[in-house]
Fold this protein.
Amino acid sequence: MGGRMERRAFLGAAGAAAAGLAANAAAQEAAGKGLKIIGIATSPRKGKTTAAAVQACLDAAKAVGPTIDAELIELAGMSIPGQVAAGLPLEPGQKDDFPGLVPRLTDPKVAGILVGSPVYFGNMSFLCKAFLDRCIAFRKQGFALSGKVAGIVAVGGARNGGQETTVASIQAALLSQEMVVVGTGRPTGRTGATLWSNKGDIAADEFGLATAKDLGRRVAEVAMRLAAAKG
């Protein structure tokens, strides 16, 4: 009799655990519906290695759940005057493309934002700096980016070409926006994705691409968990 009762208790506990796992999986899947991850490539050169690295992150993010959407935005070719962040006016005839980015980034469906930059002298590109400076507009809008998950991608011309310092610099700006800044997670476990552009190609950088995939996955997973927590 005792054995039967123990077996029934074991089966009951196992069934409850399985039901809990199923419910958790269903909750995560539901949380992923309608979520969007945006990748911003801030290289002044369109369609090059920074864009490819950010796209690798986005592909990994989409693989987390079939209902997750992803979009790559390249700032190459855009005019983002940095002086506006300091309250200075545009120059006569100067174009400003930043206002067009505002509704795309503050869309409630956007749960995660990846920012990618090439490395220039151990830091971000001028276009990335101008973009981040202009993001002061979001702070003035009641911290419109608050709670969104952020991940950083840096592409350098050498294996140790300043990627880590570039990642840290961009992270500092996004932390000031009350964003949830994450690293690559397991198994690479880095503060951000760091890739080597060897003669203008990242395809052979297996380690760097692994960090990009881990970062994209991590951003999507955390975004889904936060969405599930909000109900």
